[in-house]
Amino acid sequence: MATQNAINNQINGAAGAVVTSTTGALSVADGNTNGYFLTSTGTNSTPTFQVKPSATSKSLIFPTSFNNNQISSSASIFYSPLTQNTTNATESAVQQVMPIAATIKNLYLNCNSNSNTGVFTVTLRVNGASSSLVVTVPASTTGVFSDTTHTVSVNAGDLVNLELSQATTGSNRGAWSMVMEV
Known about the structure:
Strand content: over 45%
Radius of gyration: 28 Å
Number of domains: 2
CATH topology of the largest domain: Jelly Rolls
């Protein structure tokens, strides 16, 4: 009972207080422990409080490809970001509904064939409007191109798709990917 009284006296009504003992002497941590967790520092030592890490985000990668796109001069073709080679000249035919709010970033394009005599661009579109996430490929150039600078926030229910547009006649082939962070 003496030990219980000693504990009660040390806590003195502090809600959430943590009582520790390493050598038989009682130690009471402040009751204001919201946002912290206890970490063991080994046998016969007082545990320490560490700040809880913030909730970590989860990232998903959207990979897809495009194949032998023959687009007439000054035209666009639209792609679904989640399905392989689903293209249409009508944007609404390929728009995907976002099921959750997210941030889309890191658009990469691996162009392995490009006969365009002018530049072509791949742009993330949200609700029928171009976003800041854009990759530009120079004329007749192949390789990996990216936009790792811009991020685009989308809400649940937003419609997303990709647009491939070019100012000259030519064909191109490759694959792209982007990250959706929730």
